[in-house]
Amino acid sequence: MKLVQEIKRNELLGSSWGIYELNTNEKKKYGNNYALSQGVFSEYAIKEFGADELLSNLKDFAYEGFFETQKEAYMQVKLVEMKSKIERMELTMKDVLKLQTPEW
Q1: Per residue in 75-84, pLDDT tens?
Q2: If DSSP states are collapsed to H, E and C, what string results for the chain?
Q3: Which residue among 48, 54, 93, 99 is least packed, with the fewest CB closer than 10 Å?
Q4: One-letter-per-residue 3-state SS of 73-89
Q5: What is the four-CA torsion angle of 50, 69, 64, 18, rounded to 10 degrees?
Q6: Which residues partner with 35 through β-bridges?
Q7: What domain of life does the UniProt record list for this protein's source (predicted)?
Q8: Which one is predicted more confidently, 62 or 34?
């Protein structure tokens, strides 16, 4: 596996994300060409644990996983950003609705 794109942490993303291009054996095993990880694997982690162990621990419920194209993986990160923005807007609206109307 090879890191092809890193999406840096920002106000909507709690951590950086990594998109990895899989090698031929990994493509056969996982059935797709790219992997998306919440967090970027360090060279140490890849050497210490091995790419296979790191890839097998990706979690669908955390929006990680395997994708046919790099763009699909990137759009998954954008989905996470949008969800984060919507959640913030909902919290703000709840706070606004709690405000009392001033008596004039």
Answers
A1: 999 999 999 9
A2: CEEEEEECCCCCCCCCEEEEECCHHHHHHHCCCEEEEEECCCHHHHHHHCHHHHHHCCCHHHCCEEECCHHHHHHHHHHHHHHHHHHHHHHHHHHHHHCCCCCC
A3: 99
A4: HHHHHHHHHHHHHHHHH
A5: 60
A6: 20, 66
A7: Bacteria
A8: 34
Q: What is the pLDDT of residue 68?
A: 97
Tokens found for residue 47: 């050497």
- Tokens (6 digits) for 72: 């699909």
Residue (of 45, 8, 4) closest to 21 by Cα position = 4
Of 35, 27, 33, 26, whose CA–CA distance to 64 is shortest? 35
